[in-house]
Sequence to fold (321 residues):
Amino acid sequence: MEQKNLLLKIKDLTINYNTYDGIVKAVEGLNLSMSNGQTLGLVGETGAGKTTTVKGIMRLLPDPPAKIVRGEIYFDGENLLKKSKKEMRSIRGKQISMIFQDPMTSLNPVMTVGDQIAETIRLHNDISKKQSFEEACTMLEQVGIKGERAGDYPHQLSGGMKQRVVIAMALACNPKLLIADEPTTALDVTIQAQVLEMMKKLIAQYNTSVIMITHDLGIVAETCDYIAIMYAGEIVEYGTKQHIFLNAKHPYTKGLFACIPDITAEDNKLTPIEGLMPDPTNLPKGCKFYPRCPMAGKECENENPANKEIENGHFVKCHFV
Fold:
């Protein structure tokens, strides 16, 4: 997955959680890279390791129980895993920002939204309280909220407005990389569309690279240039939007597309993927997907497949591709 003008490169990242029930293998030998100005969709079922991966990039994993066992995360040519806590605090918010799943719990209920955005700006810039508040009002205007609402508290705003505030806070210091962890999950469909459209405009305006975590392939089609399909802590297929939507090769990726209803088909029954994701404390020895795979053979049970490049920039982790 080597690319030009690299911004982020993850090599052999392995993250475990040490629990009373055993070691949870959340991310296993993950490799991923992305360039400046690129939008990457990270897609997979709940429990695939998507949020653990991005929290690993941000160095926000709870330690204990989480532990980065091995791997390297290079951002702008520097290994984030070698950085001190103080150095990471200066990177978070300034160079890498994150929009968390639920805006309701991302905001401080006893601070005005303007003060919360202004505090983020002051943390990374040597400016006065008055200047930072003025910039916070400007950021609110950028996300479609009137500047005078800067004096409001989170409970005075709707869910969609809260999410816009969180986006304004994430983009306030013009980061190089924005991580959006299911940014529209808690919103209704109409507001989802508005927020996504606004995000696309701001991302283009600020020339920000984005990792978009989502279950929704429609959102991926609308917003992402590249797609990584994740299953049981591994990336099983990676490529451009055209590769994945027009020429999906991994049985799991094909299974995800088969789960999407086709409104033009007479028979509108969905084709579910059989079975459940494997227990992360007891993963299969070979291919992680083989217990559910319609193509599985003997080699799948004992041997984890290599990551093959089947066409330029299109990688698949499967014995039968």
